[in-house]
Design goal:
heterodimer, A: mainly beta, globular, B: 6-stranded mixed β-sheet, 4-stranded antiparallel β-sheet
Chain lengths: 112, 112
């Protein structure tokens, strides 16, 4: 099946710093990528939808200036958490779609 | 809007017991339905799916049938193993390039 990778798999950063998470489709071209967020013992909540070459569409309540999404190519989307705070600590999961959706393994962010 | 409701956990079963995790959905159109599994500390893995009414998805002994009349997609397995311990998410998607809507997840623990 199709493979989606995320990097890093986990990251610890200090409050106020920015963190970039990469999502790559390794063996297919993804016209659309989705970013989800999962708090401990909770479900996945969609943060934003990104289409290659265009601006991301953010869900209500998600700050677009805080969570910067770039989808510069058909195989790479990045999520940058700017000025991270402890409440941003979460599990971030991307999925890539070239028709069907495939999920990355997730990135665990801990902000201290 | 679309939504997915699945039974609350946690569910604790003995090895070789029969498993049912209920899932019902609300959708305006004719969605595709999915079950995903998440093992501790990992991302989501697609377990099975069904794309139209009366389709049965199956994988690794798990089954679920798309029931349009009852808007349900219950997950079943005849004999669970300790290795099946995980969180199971029911989800729907209207089309391939639309984000998934997830249920809250059901934690399954299988004891030997």
């Amino acid at each position: 099946g199709a493979v989606v990778s995320q990097h890093p798999s986990w990251v610890i950063c200090k409050s106020g710093t920015s963190v970039k998470i990469e999502c790559r489709s390794l063996d297919f071209q993804a016209t659309t990528m989705f970013w989800y967020r999962q708090f401990p013992k909770q479900s996945l909540m969609l943060m934003a939808t990104s289409n290659e070459g265009s601006k991301a569409t953010y869900e209500q309540g998600v700050e677009k200036d805080k969570f910067l999404i770039n989808h510069a190519s058909l195989t790479l989307s990045t999520l940058t958490v700017t000025s991270a705070h402890p409440e941003d600590s979460s599990f971030y999961i991307c999925s890539a779609s070239g028709g069907e959706q495939y999920f990355g393994p997730g990135t665990r962010l801990t902000v201290t | 809007g679309n939504s997915v409701t699945q039974m609350e956990g946690p569910v604790t079963l003995s090895e070789e017991a029969f498993l049912t995790i209920n899932c019902t959905y609300t959708a305006t159109g004719y969605p595709s339905l999915f079950w995903y599994v998440q093992y501790p500390g990992e991302g989501l893995q697609l377990l099975l799916k069904a794309t139209k009414a009366d389709d049965k998805g199956s994988n690794k002994g798990f089954e679920a049938t798309y029931r349009k009349e009852t808007t349900s997609f219950h997950l079943e397995k005849g004999s669970v193993q300790v290795s099946d311990s995980a969180v199971y998410f029911c989800a729907l998607s209207e089309k391939g390039n639309t984000p998934l809507v997830f249920g809250k997840g059901t934690r399954l623990s299988v004891i030997a």
